[in-house]
Amino acid sequence: MRYGRQAAGLVALGLVGFVIDRGLKALALAGQTFGPADGGVRFELFPNPDIGFSLRFPAAASLLLIPMALMAFVWLGWRWWRRGDLVRSAATMVIIMSAVSNYLDRLRHGYVVDYVSLGTWFPVFNLSDVVIVCGLVLMAVAAKRKLGS
Known about the structure:
By secondary structure, the chain is mainly alpha-helical. It has one domain (2-148). The protein has helices at 2-29, 59-82, 86-109, 127-148, and strands at 42-48, 112-117. Helix 1 (2-29) packs parallel to helix 3 (86-109) and helix 3 runs antiparallel to helix 4. The longest helix has 28 residues, at 2-29. The relative contact order is 0.19. The mean pLDDT is 88.
């Protein structure tokens, strides 16, 4: 039962992250900026037509392949849920929620709304990107623990 509560908490956290990310994207789209303009951490709109880590990918292909990847994650999450692997299932739900946030941007604006820059040494990103990476790390840790037991 402990894992069930953790899984529910993780999904709730993912939902909160989704709402906060959408709000921050709305601020960026409205022109809000803060932080130094000459480098360092900066908040402003950075339209990103690329996929993760600013990798180039044809826009038409991403509009087709992203929903396919989301469906694969839905299937994985459902499969893990049925097997009682609640942590990986919840991590999958968090990833899906964050990916949907970015996909909504792509559908509405033709690009993902990124709003955090750490300077020229790191790609721009948003909260959904952070949550996706954390979800993937959690899935990997849960898988390793499952293999070790």
